[in-house]
Amino acid sequence: xxxxADNAATTALSPTALRTMTAALQDVYGNPSSLHRMGRVAAxxxxxxxxxxxxxxGAKPEEIYFTGCGTEADNWALRFAAYAGAKExxxxxxxxxxxxxxVLHTLAALEKEGFxxxxxxxxxxxxxxxxxxxAAIRPDTALVSIMYANNxxxxxxxxxxxxxxxxxxxxxxxxxxxxxxxxxxxxVAAQNIDMLSLSGHKFHAPKGVGxxxxxxxxRLRPFIEGGAQERGKRAGxxxxxxxxxxxxxxxxxxxxxxxxxxxxSRLRDKLIEGLEKIPFxxxxxxxxxxxxxxxxFCFEGIEGESLLLRLDMAGICxxxxxxxxxxxxxxxxxxxxxGLPHEIAHGSLRLSLCEYNTEEEVDYILEQVPQVVRTxxxxxxxxxxxxxxxxxPYAD
Length: 396
Ligand SMILES: *Cc1c(COP(=O)(O)O)cnc(C)c1O
Hints:
It contains 13 helices and twelve strands.
């Protein structure tokens, strides 16, 4: 059996997105800036896509700026807010300890440029406390950037409450909604969001397209200089087929959000219930306030990477917060921020589902993971040491 359970890393194109993109690649090849008929066709398609994205975000079309990806939108929002703040003598930025590297590494770069960064703790359940945010906001705070939902443990932050607090305090609020978009309701006006990043490939659109929403009235500065595209704020000929496919996929995801969430969260809960039966396992992140599709666990006594390789051999595509993809052996900053010790954080597994996953696939995962965990434990010296202290749950 083959199971793709890594939808938080990226998703497959939806048939709608694929159809839209293929048609656009063939027929909408004009440059939206051209005055002739092909240009006008392209400009109309771009306008339509912008209106669709705005509609489902509760925004106005002129508040949408298409970008090359979610990372670009995050970089743009943070640098813009930091430099705008610095002009008024505000050089303090607030974020959380579990942001995506697109945010954390940009903040680290800004720190080197003389900005001061406060990272809010998230406690055992992976959620920031409003009191901590309130206490951290200072007269010289230029920006609060807190993600809507976490990509590793799926926890959902109280974005509307954060937005309200920031608005009251007169501080700009940006949210990285890359993991939330298409899966959780977004209404930038009702949630008091000033800036928001999203990316197409996390909701069945192609990779390499995203957007930054920036509330009207905020004088956004360009991040990439050049032509007059995106009202002079983001130069470069628009990736129209990708933008059109993203709008189609976003509309589809938002229209089906409730039904998808019901199906996916039922599968998620079945997985959680089954995996919790594995001895010395623990769910990471809040049980209730989590994305419909994300299941995240730590299994003591094993390495996340070995687990992934074995699952891959069994046909299951999953992910781990402890994969040393970057050549680093450190476990994920997200799991450490939950207060988990290194040795436990090392044995992490993330299964991320989407509406294409089936109950049969979940049953297959529940058959494979406990077996693989057991096999790895039986080979693991760490587990061996643990079993000198505890009764061996596999002994019978
Ligand atoms: C995937 C992801 C990003 C990066 O988006 P890209 O389009 O891949 O650059 C940023 N933030 C979060 C929370 C993500 O899950």
